[in-house]
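Table S2 (text version). Query chain:
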Amino acid sequence: MFLPLVAGLGNPGREYESTRHNLGWQVLDALAAKHRLGWKSAPHFEAEIARWDAGGDRPRWLVKPQTFMNDSGRAVGAVARYYQIAATEVVAVHDDLTIDFGLVKVTAGGSAGGHNGVASLIEHFGAGFIRYRIGIGPKHPAEMELTDYVLGRFTTEQQTIISQKLDSYVQGLELLLARGLEPAMNQLNRRDQK
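Corresponding structure-token output:
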């Protein structure tokens, strides 16, 4: 099954660069750089988009919403409607506090799990999209406010690990795009991937 829309969730603005909540953008930027794709501002979609002619009769669109995390669905939904892309053909790449730091989990459907960007996608086009979830948990210290944690920057040690794992995150995403949901889940959802 061809997946024509890949959305990285994050927040625009320099103050949000390298925060935990912008990990989806970081992975999408790395994917775009690997395939030499150029980002273009698309104000009518409230997004930055990159066209990827990955073979076949349809292009693939990479999307970085510029609406802020809590309203990501508005931008992604606008792109999906314009290009007549069904929710089941959309991949959302995002951070996930419920998954241990550094691990990846691929799922389809389900609830937002407390993630406001995912909740916005569900609100705008339903829950049927695929989620490429990258672990940033558990929250530490535990008493820290959730917003402060996800909008905080990785520790130096964590940033080093993210930098080392970025290629494998991109490869996992490429596996999902090339082979589909089931093979990606079988390979990436193992607990021993550290």
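Notes on Table S2: The longest strand covers residues 90-100. The chain has one domain: 5-187.
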